[in-house]
Each structure stands twice: as structure tokens, then as C-alpha cells.
Amino acid sequence: MMGQGRLAAWGIGLAALVALPFVYRDPYHLHILVLILIWSFAYTSWSMMGRFGLVSLGHGGFMGIGAYVTALLWNHLGWSPWIGIPVGMVAAGALALIVGYPCFRFRITGHYFVLVTLALSGIVLQVITATRDYTGGSLGYTPNRTSGNKLLALQFDDKITWYLIALGVWLFGIVVWHWVDRSMARYALEAISEDEDAAAAAGVDVTAEKLKITLLSAVMTALAGAIYCQYQMFITPDTVSGIAVSLQMVFAAIVGGLFVSLGPTFGAVITILLAETLRIGFGTKAVGWDNLVYGVLLVLFIIFLPKGILGSVLDRLKPQRKVPRAHEQEAVQIARPGT
Amino acid sequence: MGMQAFLDIFDIYLLEAVINGILLGGVLALLALGLNLIFGVIDVTWICYAELVMIGMYAMYFMVQYYGISYFVAAPLTILLVAVLGAALHYLVIAPLLTAPPINQLLATGGVLFVLQSFATVAFGIDFRNLGIRLPVLAFGDMNFSYARLLSFLAALVGMVAVYLFMTRTFTGTAIRAISQDRQIMALMGVDTRRIYLITSALGGALAGLAACLLVLQYDVHPFVGLSFGPITFLICVLGGLGNFIGGFIAAFVFAEIISLGGLFSDLEWGYVLAFAFFIVMMFIRPAGLLARRR
């Protein structure tokens, strides 16, 4: 249903993004852009299920699995990331199914679902810390530098290559988002998020639909973790895993706007630029200031602007675009437990 | 050195771990009680509950260590301070969101978690600090127990009994229990729900404050200390059934034993991993909590 004009705008925007690093080569700015693209992809992956009221605080776990499985297979078994990344994605997907199936089968929703997924990211963080003989524990982990083929090891020194990889991965995320948005699954999931029993009565297989979107979201998040690891060449449990990372995903997606495809990307731009500005502005005293501002903003956003910046702006621009769906009135709606 | 000698040693350690688990369970039960109270009455999960405890621990540290106030004077002041923080949290963040979807309230307290953590980082730095009070170790046969743990356990019990008496013997306590049973009807019965919510939040804060006074005896304070016992508190509440006080109490001891015994056989992290894994398995078996009736 994408109009010619929008398609053209996307085309021009993309062409500009691809051309950018060949015109503008400041390494620091390119570095920030790569980070924004990778995190945008992670936040988009989270919002794939978040927009349907499936609020997961376990995505830090999936991201950690993607990053650590890839790095561990490379260092210990010498498996190329080209194999390691799919293995990591499969591992994250398997974990998503193991935790997701009983949750959805037994109708664990709302607070309960959030807290179960919170436990999941807690487990992954503790396992990474506990297996410190292999993973380096909380001190972090570095994939070995390759002396051979850089393409095979997925290690590149120049920022332009990484920028193009990150751009491709990000675009992939946006395409998948639109694919889900235009699929039948979206209507099923929207029905589920409004009333599970009614959706089931109307013939929607609630458990299967929820599992599919959870699997997709988890696998994509693991890919984001692996790409982040290959780019940064250093990971710690705290930067790719755990509750803080999960909350960060929720925060960015909500600030940007959950219900529009570029919302999480917008959230990533805002949060990363904010963090960098504060870091430069406050120098070494910046520790903590960025999260302080994040936290205050998050609370204010949930109270006053639950549809996010981009979502609200788009609404203003096109007031008669369509009748807003009931579940978009609020940031996230969930089926209440026990109903 | 035969098999018998090995078993003797093993049993002593096992018993020590079991008892240490019970002592740990006391404080965990106190934390779970505060969170359950808030959930049961207001239907909100304070994700930042452990961070309130962290602020309380800093308050204790500064009063005792920096200003030289006696521990027993500082403790009530800390409990009062965190109680005020709890009420403020309700008034500023939860009250405007009471009609919003529950998940928004939960995420807003997630924002408060960031705020409190980074406030502590900015204001106090990331150094580990402790009271400098080293309580003696209690030797009992071949077993050693930390005096601080024993004291915490007893104080936690006293705190829980006090809450129980308040809830059953006073008018306000009765109103709180009534609201947790039916939110709509009580307003019609002439109970000011806003006042009850504020009192409940202050009470929940006070319990976090008490936990802070006890935890500061055993653990160093740093801005991220909440992350080391916050998640486990949520799991206890969910396992016991959110809002179910007795379920939370039992679950606290189950978790404490798993952590303590798991830590005996391996690293402490594996104790936590075991507890988490146990939690997930239990979610499959009893999704509505330990004490839930089968429907």
C-alpha cells in the first residue's frame, strides 16, 4: 500500500545513506552512525513483539547469546562468524521457544510475562559471569584478531565497510518490520493484544502466533548482538546482556515510538546522541548523567507522550490518516492477568 | 581419612548452608513483603524497589560513617526517609498513571530505576562503601554464622510481625486489606483510596528502608547493588503469587535455600542460576504461583 511518493522518498533517503561514507569520512562520526544503526536494528527487533503488547525484558539475554556464542565459537573452535552467527541465532531462538511456549500456553501475560522474561536476562547474565573460565566473566571478552582472511573472520578495520554492513542489517530489520506489518499475522496479533479470549474464539491460534513473532524477534536480536560483537571486538556481560540492556531497548523504542517502523531507529538516534553529547559535555564526570536524563525522560514520556516522539509527530501531521486502533491509544497494552 | 570422615565434613557444611539459607531467607522475605504489599493493594510492580533499598543503604552509610550518628538512631531515620521516598514515588509517578495500562506503570518505575541508579552514581560515585562495623562471627560447634545475618533475620521477623499486627489490628490496615480484595467497592464504602494508596506506598518504602538498615550490615553499598537482589525479589513474588503474602514468605525461603545450597556446591552465581532455572520450571508447573489453587 506504499504510495509512489513514499517509495521515492525511501529510495532517495537510502541512496543518500549509502553515499554518505564516501563523501564524509570523519571516523568518529562514522563510528557513532554505525552504533546507531546496530542499536536501531536491535530496538526494531524488540519492537516487533513489543508493539503487540508482548513486553519482554529478556532481550538482553538474546543479544548476549548472539554476541557470546559467535565470539566463543570463533576463539575456542575456530568457527567463522559466518557459521557462528547462525548458530547463535538458532540458540537464541531455541531459548525463546523454551521460555515462550509455556508462557503463551498457560496464558502468562502482563506483569507475569515481564517478570519471567526479566528472569531470562538475569539467567543469561549470571551464566556468562559464572562461566568466567571461558567467557572472561564480567571483565569482558575479545574475539581473537585474525591473521588470515578478513572476510572469513568478519573483521574489518575500516569504518566504511562496517557502516555499509550496519546499514544493510538495519535495512533488513525495517523490511522485516514492514513485512510483518502487512501480513495476516499482524491482524491476529493485534486481536490477541486487545482480547486474547475473543481472538481465540475467532479462530486465531494464540500460542502459535505469539511464538512466531517471539521467535522472529529473538533471532533478530541475537543477530544484532553478534554484529555488535564483531564491530566492537569487545563485549562485556553488562554491555550486551542483562536487565539494563533490556530496559534500554524498551526505553529507546518507547521514546521513538513503538507503532511506526522508524520509531525505534529514531529512539536510537536520540538516546545515542544524548549519551554522546552528555559524555563530551561532562567529560569524565559524565558517568551516570546520561542515564539520569534517560530515566527522567522515560518517566515523562510514559506519562505524557506514550506514543513516542515520532509516533506523536506523525499523528499531528496526518490527523485524518485513519481511525487509530484502540491498542495504539496507549504505549503498550496487555491482556490483564486472570481475565 | 575414610568415607565417614568425608561425610562428616560434608554434613557440617550442608547444615551450615541450610541455616545460612534460612537467615538469608528472612531478609528476602522482608523485601518480598514490601513488594507484595504494593502489588496487592495498588496493582503496580515497583521495578525500582531494590533501588529504594540502595538509597536507604547510602543514607545509613552517610549518617553512621560520615556524621557519626549512632546506628540505632540512624536506622529509624532511614526507614522514615525511604518511606517518604515511597510515598513520593506513588504521588509523582504512579498516581498519574493509575488508569494507564499496568505495563506503563511498570515501565515508568523502570525509568525511576535508571534515575535512582544514576543519581547515586553522580552523587556518591561508583566506589564500594561499607559501614566499617564488623560484627563478630558466631561459632556454633564447627559451624560459623555471621552475627549480622542472625541479627538481620530476627529484625526482619520483627518487622514482618509488626506489619501483620498493623494490617489486622488497625482500621487503616483493615482498609488496606479490603482494598486489595475489591478496588471499586471500597471507594463506595467511604474509604479514601488515594489516602490508602499513599499510606501503602509509604509502608512499602518503610519496609525497603528496614531492609536497607539490615543489608548494610552485610554488604557494601554501590549504585548497582540493587541489581544483585532486585531480580531475585521479583522472582520470589511471582513464584509466591504476586500479592500473596504467605506465598511470598514461603518462596523467599525456598529461593534462599536454593541459592545457599547451590553456592555450596559451586560458585554463588550458579546458586542464582539454579534459582532462576527453578523459577522458570515452576512457571510451567504452577503459572499462578506456589499456593495458587488449580482452576
Question: What does this protein look like?
Answer:
The complex is a heterodimer of chains A (339) and B (295). Chain A has helices at 4-23, 27-50, 59-77, 81-105, 110-130, 132-135, 150-153, 159-181, 184-194, 196-201, 206-232, 237-240, 243-256, 263-282, 289-304, 309-317. With 339 residues, chain A is mostly helical. In chain A, 73% of the residues lie in helices and 0% in strands. Chain B is an all-alpha fold and 295 residues long. Chain B is 76% helix and 3% strand. Chain B contains 11 helices and 2 strands, in the order H-H-H-H-E-E-H-H-H-H-H-H-H. The relative contact order of chain B is 0.18. The model of chain B has no long low-confidence stretch (mean pLDDT 83). The chains are: A mainly alpha (339), B mainly alpha (295). Chains A and B meet through helix 4, helix 5, helix 13 and helix 15 of A and helix 4, helix 9 and helix 11 of B.
Report the portion of residues of chain A in β strands. under 5%
Relative helix content of chain B: over 70%
What is the oligomer described by this structure? heterodimer
Radius of gyration of chain A using CA atoms only? 20 Å
For the report, how would you describe the main beta sheet of chain B? 2 strands, antiparallel
By secondary-structure content and strand pairing, the structural class of chain A works out as mainly alpha
- Overall number of strands of chain A: 0
Largest interface: A-B, 52 and 49 residues
Largest sheet of chain A: none
Q: Unreliable runs of chain A, pLDDT <50, ≥5 residues?
A: 329-339
Strand content of chain B: under 5%
Mean pLDDT of chain A: 84
What class would the helix/strand composition of chain B place it in?
mainly alpha
Overall average pLDDT of chain B: 83
Give the proportion of residues in helices of chain A: over 70%
Give the gist of this structure.
Chain A has 339 residues and is mostly helical. Chain A has helices at residues 4-23, 27-50, 59-77, 81-105, 110-130, 132-135, 150-153, 159-181, 184-194, 196-201, 206-232, 237-240, 243-256, 263-282, 289-304, 309-317.
